[in-house]
Amino acid sequence: MTSAKRVTLTDVAKLARVDKSVVSRVINDDDRLVIKPETRDRVLAAIQELDYHPNAAARSLRTAQSGTYGLLIPDFANPIYAEIIKGAEQAAAARDTVLLTGTVNEDHPERYVRMLASGRVEGLLLASDKLSAQAIEALRHTGRPIVSVNQRVPGVERMILADDERASALVVRHLTDLGHERIAHIRGPRNSDTARRRLNGYRGALRAGGLTPDPALVAGDGYTSETGAEAMRELLALPEPPTAVLVANVAAAVGALSAARQLGVRVPEDVSVATIHDIPLAANLAPALTTVRMPLAEMGRQGMLALFGEDSGSGRTVVRTETELIVRDSTSARA
Amino acid sequence: MTSAKRVTLTDVAKLARVDKSVVSRVINDDDRLVIKPETRDRVLAAIQELDYHPNAAARSLRTAQSGTYGLLIPDFANPIYAEIIKGAEQAAAARDTVLLTGTVNEDHPERYVRMLASGRVEGLLLASDKLSAQAIEALRHTGRPIVSVNQRVPGVERMILADDERASALVVRHLTDLGHERIAHIRGPRNSDTARRRLNGYRGALRAGGLTPDPALVAGDGYTSETGAEAMRELLALPEPPTAVLVANVAAAVGALSAARQLGVRVPEDVSVATIHDIPLAANLAPALTTVRMPLAEMGRQGMLALFGEDSGSGRTVVRTETELIVRDSTSARA
DNA sequence: GTGAAAGCGCTAACAT
DNA sequence: ATGTTAGCGCTTTCAC
């Protein structure tokens, strides 16, 4: 029906009775263009009338810029990425560029290389640790800008990090303030950068509080509710179980809560539980979880700015420090 | 360092000592190309050696195809979209096309129109009800294919729907089987198509079970945990409260559980609760939620196929019927 | 103040 | 079995 063949710059120019170069310059707000107001109006009217939209491919070909950036995440089901995406999308929209968010498919890393090398996307925001060193190297080889978010990636020098160590420390400090001394940690995956930093923060804060880290009180190896549940069972089975647990992420905390419940262990009466990342779910669990809020959306935003080359950091690591402890019902004073 | 200026078809042709058209046809596996194996090998070797990647913009300009499709969702934080995205991404990857997933920003609907009209994306998968009728009309006006997923959108004739009515009916039937007669419904937003269909299914199933729908037992107007909590409080405050509640979605169910807990009402002993969409969270709540599994990923996949024009449905509504009741701990026989 | 012309990198119809 | 050619629709330098 409305299949009127595509309108081009030439059509607009013809209708406005000017050259297409003039139309182009009007569209792009060329400063150096001197034009009579009435001519400009005629051009704008023609654009309106024909419902003209510049062809993205032609423009990209000419300018060698696609106005598109990529954001790679491991899994849309993990709510922390929703926040990062939100911030990145916002920054992209503000620059009138397009953000292409996708999950990393470990089977076909060459897809991402092709995207960069073909110019389809101009730069990449890396929020996934699911890429092989080989794939990273291939991406780097394209020469396009790459920024990692929420994690350190070997070979990628620009990164936006949260202060994961401080997040752990805030929780440990909160727990020691409540009188806890046997504070356990359900850690994330061994190969995860964030998990390692959270573990470091946990250990450091214990020492800072005059406590000695006990290896027996560190369990777990994953970011899922299954790993969290298993680690919790392990900890509760200890001869001398912890009175408080810092869980590395919310998913694992959900599992930990569930495991405690099944064992008849009450939270927080018998054991306090706290975790990192204040996603909405945390407030709705039973009991509502004490968490640490991290500036995830802001990190997404900063990552995009770094891609645009608009950040001040000029290639250095940026650690966002706006971490904040949110105390809810899952932590209480030691009995 | 590796900033060697971009490699073009011409460079490859020169190195392989053939014409660039030959290289192009080799790359695109042109059937009608007759070529000596050794020549083809020379071309492939040159491509390897120069690490050549075809320029996406030039190709798009020439073929008038971008190989990119858009998927519009209302919110990445809602886990049901993670499933839809997963299916859509998979279908896109299988066709070697790119999927651009983004959230609908009600403030700037013209962004999506531009994307379609500029040829940046070839078609749109609509999983959001956040677009105005006006915006939809503008999108339709581009003449590009549009398919809606998980909802009916006025003006969009191709759609992939779940059987929301049946989902409600499965729950109601489960509850009546357990002996419940006062079965309430915490409904979704009034302007939501899925919410309306779930309400219809609820009413129909009550009648089919010989029960008379009681308007007082329908509360709520939203898909958030806040609206769910408020509706639950309202229902529990009735002179004769329900013994079972069908909540329209998981988020509202989380709120409903939380409200019941705060009021000292036990689930399922005092009131049974069930909801629609079996996302992983449902199994990890306390108590684990009885839900209905819907083929969300499959719907995303089918939506993409419809965009590609590969579906059998040829423009008709498709209702997926693979809904399945998952009974967990939040429903039990009436006391 | 406006127009002419070249060319971005590719594909496809048509030579040879 | 391979080469020639003509654009796709746009931006930009330069000319008038």
Automatic annotation (TrEMBL), chains A, B:
Residue span, HTH lacI-type domain: 7-63
Q: Which keywords does UniProt give here?
A: DNA-binding, Transcription, Transcription regulation
* UniProt entry tagged with the keyword Acetylation: no
Q: Which Pfam families match?
A: LacI (PF00356), Peripla_BP_3 (PF13377)
Task: List the CDD domains hit by this protein, alphabetically.
Answer: HTH_LacI, PBP1_LacI_sugar_binding-like
In alphabetical order, the GO MF annotations are: DNA-binding transcription factor activity; transcription cis-regulatory region binding
Q: Does the keyword section mention Transcription?
A: yes
Protein known as: Transcriptional regulator, LacI family
